[in-house]
TrEMBL record:
Transmembrane segments: none annotated. CDD domains: Fur_like. Belongs to the Fur family. Keywords: DNA-binding, Repressor, Transcription, Transcription regulation, Zinc. Pfam families: FUR (PF01475). This is Transcriptional repressor.
Amino acid sequence: MGTSVEQALEQLKSTGVRMTPQRHAILSFLMHSMTHPTADEIYKSLSPSFPSMSVATIYNNLRLFVEAGLIKELTYGDDSSRFDADMSEHYHAICRTCGTIVDFDYPPLTDVEDAASKETGFKVEGHRMEIYGQCANCATRHRAN
């Protein structure tokens, strides 16, 4: 992962954002999480340590981190947004049964971006690719039933 928690905090401080213990905890949780948590999952994990922290505090800080370019918001249909601190070019495999999201690397699809640009005239700024199916746990459970 490219950015450390300390580098991210320095980046925020340089833009005038005051660093609170809650902000530090939310950012640290995200940067060490491989599960692409929802705001609610972050809240449930951190609330024992920060009993006065509200869900609104989590959402407000997530927005701040997204705007600062420290995390990505992943939106999939009507489900709650999930958040990813891995800003590298990577893709997601998503289980339709339990919602698990797993990162995987593949050479960037620059040919697709080039084709889209030529065909549409768009100045392409990026893309998102998702693979859907059942994770190994759900597939095993499904076969067992």
